Amino acid sequence: MLIPMIPEIGHFALIVALLMATVQAILPLAGTATRRPLWMAYARPMAAGQFLFLVVAYACLTASFLLDDFSVATVADNSNSMLPWYYKASAVWGNHEGSVLLWSLILGAWTFAVSRFSRELPRDMLARVLGVMGLVSTGFLAFVLITSNPFARLRPNPPADGADLNPLLQDFGLIIHPPMLYMGYVGFSVVFAFAIAALLGGRLDAAWTRWARPWTNVAWAFLSVGIALGSWWAYYELGWGGWWFWDPVENASLLPWLAGTALIHSLAVTEKRGAFKSWTVLLAISTFSLSLLGTFLVRSGVLTSVHAFANDPSRGLFILALLGLTVGASLLLFALRAPRVSHQVGFTWLSRDALLLINNILLVIMTVTVLLGTVYPLILDALGLGKISVGPPYFNALFVPLTVILCVFMGLGPLAHWKRTEGRALLRRVWLAGAVALVVAALAPLAYGGEWNLQVSLGLAAALWVVLPLVRDLWEKSRHRDGRLAGLRRLSLAHWGMVVGHLGLAVTIVGVTVVSNYAVERNVRMAVGDTARVAGYTFTMTELGSRRGPNYVADAAHIEVRRGDDARAFVMTPEKRLYIARGMPMTDVALRPGLFRDLYVAMGEDLEDGSWAMRIQYKPFVRWLWLGGLLMAAGGILAVVDRRYRRAATARDPERPAREVTA
Amino acid sequence: MKRRLLLLLPLLAFLALGGFLYQGLSMNPFERDSALMADPFPAFELTTLEDPSRTVDESLLRGEVTLVNVWGEWCPTCKQEMPQLLDLAERGVRLVGVDYKDTREKGRAFLAEFGNPFEVNVFDPDGDLGFELGVYGAPETFLVDAEGVIRYHHTGYIKPEDVREVILPEVERWRD
């Protein structure tokens, strides 16, 4: 009988994966140092083996959840026999132990992918890249096995049933948000490994950036989707209609995203122009370091957050040591090996190079702003200067103006030329866009909300200023003797990636601006037959009943909604659920989504005389927030699909001799 | 040489951050200010949220066991905590709010929307009282006995089950 042994098989597979990761870390790196091709050749098979055993371990944990093996502590604490199977499968990562296992599995998958798709890399480069990824993997697998074993058994008396998954997590959001986010976090380990490999090899030319760019774009796209999903999940699941709380854990995901955004742009400059070499390496190290920092902040319990996992001081210390070793060693290597002489690649202050540099600096300032706001309470406390909390007022006061400034330069960047741009020529191409943006942005609040609104105008102007020059540029670029369509088709996918990505940011900005200024919230007391009017809609409660779900009981209301005097009505059914195993009440929001507005009804308190406190919200343009996030991600992916990359990767450096450069 | 030092800068910055993170590990944010336990409630003199011309001080908390809740309109968790506070008020517990780092309009709108379990709300726009209390974030709740001495401190959200299991027993304990 193998079934009772599933957790042990998983545990064993995890140990084998750790051993393979160790070999993958040590032998190839030692091989490049001593020039032994045989040792270097260990990298690829070990990457494949490690991934295989991680899959086995992960499958075993999933099987334990699906088979309700409550003798496994993780399963007993986070699952229940009544839980639907898809939540059982995603409960695997709804807890600390399982989620670090998922983290490791994804790292294994990225490593395997690099080993498959980078056959054209010089042998020593590939050995170094996979070696560095092996080092990271060794650290994390040791962390899982030593402090967070997901297969630990509860013996001799396993509980008859599990404590159930936290009801907040019993949602589609849990199924999809963490895997996307981790794909992003962990994906940045690839560009990190390339940067470290370049530093180790002393070959800081543009070649490593060309190989690393597609990986970075993909990781960034995943992270964008992950963050957008997280925001969307918070919006409908926490029950209050907010979409960003500047919570430490949200910030932890935003930090690598901001640094990663700077990185994908700086990689472009380094590849195309050979400039900003040290800066790009530093950004590559920083981006992955911030991913690791996020992991530390979430799992060590140093900051209070709605996301915090159960804490254990030994875990915090282990991750901090891991963080210290990885980041400290990388930055030390950077200090020792980064090019001693800065390369003078000439460009004037009005050029695409300069504009990208300015935007890079702005993005780094934004990163530092968020980082400081997140750890500031910790620093003050450690210095004995008192305890404070940093809330949305701080973040909004700094982040919003910085974003507007960023947009100013974003509007110019794509139209400027590399190296130098004629100021007057640039002005001629953008003045119309600027004028249209200002006029439309000034008048739009008047048309939409009925009065002037500076905040809305500012947000819309920024968004339009990002988009309109791009439109003008497309118009000019599409001139072609076979007609405009042929002209547009001629543009490279990488260019379209940039256009779509920038458009995504503009769409998000419009969403943020409109929903922050025009959302309507109303708390009303409602009994059967009562009607409330919110933002031109009438909400009538027609029915109040109770319902039984698989692992909860619920009070449910039927709300008939009409727009204005429209005869057609639709029904919204908010619920107040009580999850049986944990005795925890949960609000299940009724949402009527739309491209230009969401209607949002949540049941509050039972007011005893048969009426309920109901919270009704009208959220204009809220979908644009996440739509923009998806567009940005799509832009990142489009740029990767561009054929130029695959050709570039194969055509250049066909069999460059493995040459060591001693620094 | 100068450039070499410049290149070392990121490492130094990271080491400093690492030091703070290490210190942070030994401080549990949930138990930070046990130092105030059994101390008198810090002195303050602030206006009330309801009436800008009415000033209150620590004597407000004498004479009856009082639950002091630090909240703010900007704090999403506070919204989720309001039903529990309303429940406590209904069960006869005296509650005083501290509207922390907020504006008067927003604070009032919050109470109008989510209900007002508080006898009175101390308006603390600059976080002075919060600083004295060692408030790390909102919500936080302090139990003050009839002599104005802090007897219990709850960091973070009061869960529905905490009302019966934690808060009410503590209130009863200090009422005698």
UniProtKB/TrEMBL annotation, chain A:
GO (cellular component) term, any one: plasma membrane
Localization in the cell: Cell inner membrane
The keyword Membrane is annotated on this UniProt entry: yes
Keyword Cell inner membrane: yes
Boundaries of every Cytochrome c assembly protein domain copy: 93-300
Alphabetized GO MF terms: heme binding; heme transmembrane transporter activity
Transmembrane segments: 12-30, 51-76, 96-114, 126-146, 182-202, 214-234, 254-270, 279-297, 317-336, 357-379, 399-418, 430-448, 454-475, 496-520, 621-641
Protein keywords: Cell inner membrane, Cell membrane, Cytochrome c-type biogenesis, Membrane, Transmembrane, Transmembrane helix
GO biological process, one term: cytochrome complex assembly
Sequence ranges assigned to domain Cytochrome c-type biogenesis protein CcmF C-terminal in this UniProt record: 320-643
Its membrane topology: Multi-pass membrane protein
NCBIfam families listed in its UniProt record: nrfE, PRK10369.1
Family statement drawn from the similarity comment of this UniProt entry: Belongs to the CcmF/CycK/Ccl1/NrfE/CcsA family.
Protein role: Required for the biogenesis of c-type cytochromes. Possible subunit of a heme lyase.
Protein's name in the database: Cytochrome c-type biogenesis protein CcmF
UniProtKB/TrEMBL annotation, chain B:
BP terms from Gene Ontology: cytochrome complex assembly
InterPro entries named among the record's database cross-references: Periplasmic_diS_OxRdtase_DsbE, Redoxin, Thioredoxin-like_sf, Thioredoxin_CS, Thioredoxin_domain, Thioredoxin_ResA/DsbE_sf
Domain Thioredoxin positions: 35-172
Record keyword Lipid metabolism present: no
Membrane topology according to the record: Single-pass membrane protein
Example GO molecular function: disulfide oxidoreductase activity
Domain of life: Bacteria
One cellular component term from this protein's GO annotations in UniProt: plasma membrane
Keywords noted in UniProt: Cytochrome c-type biogenesis, Disulfide bond, Redox-active center
Keyword Disulfide bond listed: yes
Location of this chain's protein in the cell: Cell inner membrane
UniProt-listed CDD domains: TlpA_like_DsbE
Family membership: Belongs to the thioredoxin family. DsbE subfamily.
The protein's name: Cytochrome c-type biogenesis protein CcmG/DsbE, thiol:disulfide oxidoreductase
Gene name of the record: ccmG
